[in-house]
Design brief:
single chain, about 0% strand, Branched-chain amino acid transporter AzlD
């Protein structure tokens, strides 16, 4: 069991680090524009992170065994269509998660391919 003082110190360090990463840009760039490289990173980082998450989620899919990745591809297609239609990231994320969990828990595609 962890010592309560140790847990308090760790929590405080994490809180300070989190606050610092949020506050530092305002301190450095409150009177001037950020460098072009930061603007480029700010613009391109969210899509890159999402792409990495998709790749990470697909790394363990068994493409040569039933259901052949169909639930994943079906869900990705549904999320893309929903996002292009509504342009709402939260709706896309929650609907995609719900749809995928429903497909996997009900074993819909294994029934079709099994």
């Amino acid at each position: 069991m962890e010592d309560p003082a140790h847990l308090l110190v760790v929590t405080a360090v994490v809180a300070v680090a989190t606050f610092a990463t949020r506050a530092i840009p305002f301190v450095f760039f409150n009177t001037r524009a950020p460098p072009q490289i930061l603007s480029t990173i700010e613009k391109n980082l969210p899509p890159m992170i999402l792409l990495l998450l998709v790749i990470y989620c697909l790394k363990d899919v068994q493409w040569l065994c039933a259901p052949y990745g169909v639930p994943e591809i079906f869900t990705i297609t549904a999320v893309m269509a929903l996002h292009f239609w509504k342009r709402n990231a939260m709706l896309s994320i929650f609907a995609g998660t719900g749809l995928y969990m429903m497909l996997v828990q009900l074993d819909v595609f294994s029934i079709l391919f099994g």
